[in-house]
Amino acid sequence: MSVLLPACLHAAEVFVIDVKDAISPPVASYIIDSIEEAAQTNMTAIIIRLDTPGGLDTAMRDIIQKELNAPVPVVVYVSPKGARAASAGALIALASDVAAMSPGTNIGAAHPVGIGGGGGDQEGKDTTMLDKVTNDAVAYARSIARERGRSEQWAEDIVRKSISTPAQEALEKGVIDIVAHDMDDLLTQLDGRKVKKNLATYELKTKDASLVVKPMGFRERLLSALSNPNIAYILMLIGLAGIYFELSSPGAILPGVIGGISLILAFFAFQTLPVNYAGFALVGLAVIMFIAEIKVQSYGLLTVGGIVSMVLGSILLFRTPELHARVSYGVIMPVTLFFAAFFVITIFLVVKAQRRVSRLGAEGLKGELAEVYAWNEDGTGKVFCHGEYWNARGPAGLRPGQKVVVTDLTGMDLSVTPDSPDGERG
To answer: What is the pTM of this model?
Structure first.
């Protein structure tokens, strides 16, 4: 027996949040916190405007669990036109109390993708585990559809066959409840609808409801950005380079600090992404080869090997059919070329420094211009060079104030010769 409850106890207000990203732990936290806030403030309902390519299974299940047990009606609205609720997003919409879509949107394609980079049947791989994961996902999707009174066959097909369905067709198949052109249209169609949740029935009063939009907080935005595979990839490279520089030159401190922070943030992102650790190893090897080029005379072979290793590792790093979990080629090539150019320039500067004439000790004095301070007839005297007075030996006949060139240093005595054939600087 159910009890009919009003959806609100005051002037009708509807909570609205926007999810336009892959489903990750930060996004799940944002949705769950918003549902709790909507319930605590006695909102008529919470509307999740959804546009997602999919995401992490564990984050999706946390959201769905909250939807099914929320003490407030949850409406998932796939919007605006051109948006999609793919993979994890399809099941989140399926689990909502009211599922709505804008014309020109689609929903479906929820075949599970393995964390190690698998997804679907692949030659040479043991399919037993994939079958288990797929069957589990099918049972989960069907149970959600049964709970919400939606098409169980469609729920199974989006997992097994990866089908995707446009809005109007989804409505005809009983997958969603409403096709709405905009928010006003959605609120109008929601008005008066009865939503059953557990043992209670809520009647929505949304026709003249005011919208309370809650944007994602700074913390969630930051964590969500870090979960972007392109950001995670760049952080990983910075981390590897920083740590290696610190180990190669202990005491520099700054590279180690930056590298450590970047690497920890990258590992945080990796827990939400399908990481292929062979790709990770190839990228690490590339960084080592770039740095080794500085110390090993390979005539550029290590740099070429590093570029090849980094490109291959970057492509394999997040190997998955889901495009949202891959590193963009538009990021891979510029980053690879940047790292290669950085190490080539570093090598050039190191070689240049090694070939530069020393400015210290005897080598630093050779070829320097000096001025005779006092000179004896036996070819000895004192000269002023590098801000100091030195004992010197040279041709007889030199005179004070004359410019001479240092040719050698023996002990603490300089050997000098006149700067020009006539004894004057030319």
So the answer is: 0.68
Give the separation between CA 367 and CA 353, rounded to whole angstroms. Answer: 19
Catalytic residue among 132, 161, 207, 295: 132
Contacts of 417 (CB under 8 A, 6+ apart): 394, 395, 404, 405, 407
Domains of the chain: 3-220 (3.90.226.10), 228-355 (no CATH), 361-418 (2.40.50.140)
Q: Is 87 considered catalytic here? A: yes
Structure tokens, 94: 């399926």
305 three-class SS: helix
Of 24, 29, 34, 87, the active-site residue reads 87
Residue whose entry in the numeric block shows the structure tokens 């605590």: 40
Give me the torsion for CA of 288, 291, 293, 295, rounded to 10°: -110
Instruction: Answer whether the bond into residue 334 is a cis peptide, omega within 30°.
Output: no
Task: Dump pLDDT digits (tens) for 45-84.
Answer: 999 999 998 888 888 999 999 999 999 999 999 999 999 9
Instruction: Give yes or no: 132 in active site.
Output: yes
